[in-house]
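Worked Example 4.2. Read the sequence first, then its C-alpha cells.
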Amino acid sequence: MRRSRQVILARRAVGTIVVAATVSVAAACAPAATDQHPNALYTEGKDIARWTLPLDPYLLSDLQLTKAAYAAALTVDDCLADKGIDDPVPYVDIDAAYGSDVTVRKWFDLKIAQTHGYHEPSQQRPASLEAWDDFQRQASTPSEDEAFLACRDAPATVSPGYSNTLMNFTSGLAAAAYSGASKDPAVLESAAAWNACMADVGIEDLPLTPIEMPSESVRQRLGLGASIDGPITEPTGEEIDLATTDAECRDSSGFTKAFYDALWTRESSMVEDNEAALVDAGAEIESITSEIDDIIAESRAR
C-alpha cells in the first residue's frame, strides 16, 4: 500500500494535538514575546480585527508546525541516501513564504469567506510552499516506507519536536475556553440572530450556531473535507457566495463580537490561573523553535 511521506514523517515532527477548538476558529498574526509575563502581549487591550487572544503566545503557529515537519525531513536525508533513496528535500524558504502572515488561529471572517470560502485553514497555504507540499504528498512504496521509518527512528537522526504534553496542555486550555465561550448567554443569543439571518439561504440542516457551519449537507454539496493527501481544490462561486452571506450574518447578528469577548474573558482567566506553567511552556516552545531553526540553517549552509 502506497502512502504519503507526510504520514510517515508527521509523528516525528509534532505529536497529536488537541486542536478541534483552536485550529479553525481564529485568525491572528502571532507577535513576538517581549518579556516573561504571560499577558505582556495583551496589555494594550483587545484587537478583534486581528483576533488576538491571551493564549496566542503559547499556541503553535502554522509557520512553526511547517518548519518542524521540514526540519524532521531534513534530518533523515543522508540516512535515506545511504539506503538508496536519493530524493532530497526541496529547498524552500519557509520564513519568506509566510512573511508577516503568520497565523496561530484562523477566525472565519468576511475576508476569508470572500477568498477561501469554507476551505480549511490547512488549505490556505502560501503558494511558495508548493514544492514542499508536493514533496510531502509523494506516494511511497512499502520498501521506501520501511527505510523512512528506520531513518526516522534512528538515534543519529533525532530532530527536535513539540511534545504531545506541551501542545496538549496549551491547546487544551484554548479548547476549554472555546467550549465555555460557545455556551455563553450573549453568544447563544447572537447565534439565534445569526440563524434567523440565514433562514432564507436554503440550508436544510442549518445549525443553531455558526460554529457548526458548514453543515453536513453543505459539505457534501460543495465537496468539502477531501483527504489531506489529495489535491487542494479551489472554492467555487457557490461556496464563496454562501460563505460570504454566512460571514455577513455573523457580523450583523453580533455573533463575532460576542464570541470574541467571551473567548477573551475565559482565556484571560486561564492565563492568570496558569501563569507559572505557561511561562515554562513558552520557554520550551522558544527553545525547540530555535533548535528547529538551527537545523534548517545548517542544511542550507552545506
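Now turn to a second chain, presented in exactly the same format:
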Amino acid sequence: MGTPAPAVGPPVTPMVAPATTGLTENVAGLLCYLLGWLTGIIFLLIDKRPFVRFHAAQSIVVFGGLMIIRIVLTFGWFASYGFFSLWSLISLAVSLLTLILWIYLMVTAYQGKTVEIPIAAGIAKSIAGNPSL
C-alpha cells in the first residue's frame, strides 16, 4: 500500500529576502516609524537596504522636525500666558498632524510603498544616500 505522495505546490517566499536585521523590507520600513526619529536612527545605522534606509531617514526628518516645532510652540504658549491662545491651537494642530502622519507612514511602508513627504523626502534621500528612490 505505499506512502502518500508529497504535496506539490509553489514555494513560499518572503516579500524580499531579509538582510542584516532579519526582517523583510516592509516590516523594517514600518518599524522605522514606530518610535519616530528614534527608531529611524536605529534602522539607518543597522540596515543597508535602500527602501529601509529611505524610510529611516524620512522618519528622522519628519518626526524630528515636528518635535522641534512642538518644542518651539510650547515655549511660545508659556510666553503668551493664555490657555486658549493661538499657540495652543497651532500646537494641537501639529500634534494631530503628527499622529496622522505616523499612522499613514507606517501603513504605507508596511504595504511596500515609498511615500515622499514634501521637503522631507529630499533631505531624507540625501541622508539615506539613495537619490534614485
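Notes for the reader: The longest helix spans residues 50-80. The chain has a mean pLDDT of 81.
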